[in-house]
Specification:
With about 475 residues, the protein is an alpha+beta fold. Strands 10, 11, 12, 14 and 16 form a 5-stranded antiparallel beta sheet that branches. A hairpin with a 7-residue loop joins strand 17 and strand 18. Helix 4 packs antiparallel against helix 6 and helix 4 packs across helix 8. It is elongated. The N terminus is likely disordered.
């Protein structure tokens, strides 16, 4: 080890130390220790029961929604090939992607609000990576046994019993991954046809490839990578602490109450022994899905799942100590200060959420369920017909954005006595485009300039309907 001092004109000099790692000659010690496998111990308690109920509810919703029909079609379908998104009674097209952008922005601010108030509960209770990891761990426990039994099984040499357990576990993982992938792809492809086609080997190459790709990702992420996704690949783990403040609820260890740690008998007076409430049983570490020790303070690896809270609560009950040594609390509370649940940051996020929700609702309520594109004849802007009138040819593309068949009436404004040549009432099927070639003929004496602004009007032919759309275009005079 050597010490050097860089030359500087500053009054303060910071010494720079070059540290070299010396190894015994011939040492085979690895420079970087490989990842140790985490054998998560099962724990029960209030927060784990609550988490399982939430996981079951949202897993059920994930599996059921693609099978639900609404107005004769799949209720939720993001059909990329048809460029059409069905959300129950709402059909979105590429022209409506601003609505999806609003929805994503709203979801982001909702996540910011929840994180500021409750910490990283998204990761512990709702994140698909966490949910599927716990499901895979459930298969693991049912087939291979408890955490200690799994650890002993992995240390054993390969035998028929071990091979059987491992094969059954990986079969269950893979089968559940395939079901997950089919369900996920079913949000983008009609689910009923996809499910039958996949198991009868009649699915298209793209659908089958997508299913196997997402099945492989599910199998790898929830079965093998697990906490690696949370610790090293998820960007939320890196920036979520920026939204924390001293009044954010997080899973925390009460250092002042727990220290000094140490083993003791249930009937011993630990205070007389100079010990805190923590008996140093390490259960909080054994039940943690990311393998951290919450007693080391707030760490970005903590996903706020509450497993350590339930484990410690059980220990406190057995020791007849007050609960809450590890609990959901705030930094201010741990320091004995007043907690401000209603604060400026939360009010700001809540205000933005209300404003954006209102704007999104207003845009959806005032959305016109029809659109029209106008394509001019590119070969000839204007021509003279047999009656001496000036004709312009247009192709109208009328898109019915609603989920029912509609009849629309078409007209043109902007030029007196303009003649509409072609259909002026069209029947358009739900969520489809109707292509209509038409001509507009005008007496040349009605035209005062080479180019005249006109407006095409589309109206829904339905009693008491106020659906009306206008689209500007131009009418050219023959030179």
């Amino acid at each position: 080890m050597s010490e050097t001092t860089p030359k500087t004109d500053s009054a303060k000099v910071i010494p720079v130390k070059n540290v070299k790692i010396h190894r015994p000659e011939g040492s085979k010690q690895e420079q970087y220790k490989p990842r140790d496998q985490i054998y998560v111990r099962k724990v029960s308690g209030y927060f784990q029961r609550f988490r399982r109920k939430m996981n079951f509810f949202f897993l059920f919703m994930f599996a059921a929604i693609p099978w639900i029909n609404f107005n004769g079609q799949q209720a939720v379908l993001f059909d990329i090939t048809e460029q059409r998104f069905n959300l129950w009674g709402l059909t979105l097209w590429p022209q409506d992607l601003t609505l999806l952008a609003w929805l994503f922005i709203l979801s982001a601010f909702l996540l910011f609000f929840v994180t500021t108030f409750l910490g990283r509960v998204w990761c512990g209770y709702l994140c698909p990576q966490t949910v599927w990891t716990f499901i895979f761990m459930w298969f693991e426990e049912k087939i291979e046994g408890t955490a200690n039994q799994r650890k002993k099984l992995d240390q054993q040499k390969l035998s028929a019993s071990k091979f059987k357990k491992k094969a059954l576990k990986h079969f269950c993982w893979l089968f559940f991954s395939i079901l997950t992938a089919i369900t996920f792809v079913g949000f983008f492809t009609p689910m009923r046809d996809l499910f039958i086609d996949f198991f009868t080997f009649e699915a298209s190459f793209m659908s089958a490839a997508s299913i196997w790709f997402f099945a492989f990702c599910t199998y790898g992420n929830a079965g093998w990578m697990r906490e690696i996704m949370c610790l090293h690949m998820c960007p939320y783990a890196r920036f979520q602490s920026a939204m924390f403040d001293k009044d954010t609820l997080t899973v925390s260890y009460d250092y002042n109450r727990g220290e000094t740690r140490g083993a003791r008998g249930r009937k011993q007076d630990h205070k007389a022994m100079g010990l805190g409430d923590c008996i140093d049983c390490n259960l909080c570490v054994q039940v943690c899905p990311t393998g951290i020790d919450i007693r080391n303070g707030l760490q970005y690896e903590c996903i706020n799942c509450g497993a350590c809270v339930d484990a410690c609560t059980g220990v406190m009950e057995r020791m007849n100590y007050p609960q809450g040594l590890i609990r959901y609390t705030t930094e201010h509370e741990l320091k004995g200060k007043k907690v401000h649940f209603v604060r400026a940051k939360l009010i700001g996020y809540a205000t933005l959420l209300v404003i954006m929700t209102s704007l999104l609702g207003y845009e959806i309520m005032n959305r016109v369920p029809v659109s029209m594109d106008i394509i001019r004849d590119r070969n000839e802007l204007a021509r003279e017909n047999f009656n001496g009138e000036i004709e312009n040819v247009y192709t109208l593309k009328i898109l019915n954005k609603s989920q029912k068949d509609n009849t629309y009436r078409l007209s043109v404004q902007g030029i007196e006595n303009a003649k509409w040549i072609g259909e002026n009432e069209v029947h358009v099927k739900a969520a489809s485009v109707y292509t209509l070639p038409i001509s507009i003929a005008v007496d040349p004496y009605e035209l005062t300039s080479y180019m005249t602004d006109i407006t095409f009007v589309v109206e829904l032919v339905e009693k008491d309907s106020d659906v009306r759309l206008t689209h500007d275009s131009r009418f050219f005079k023959k030179r």
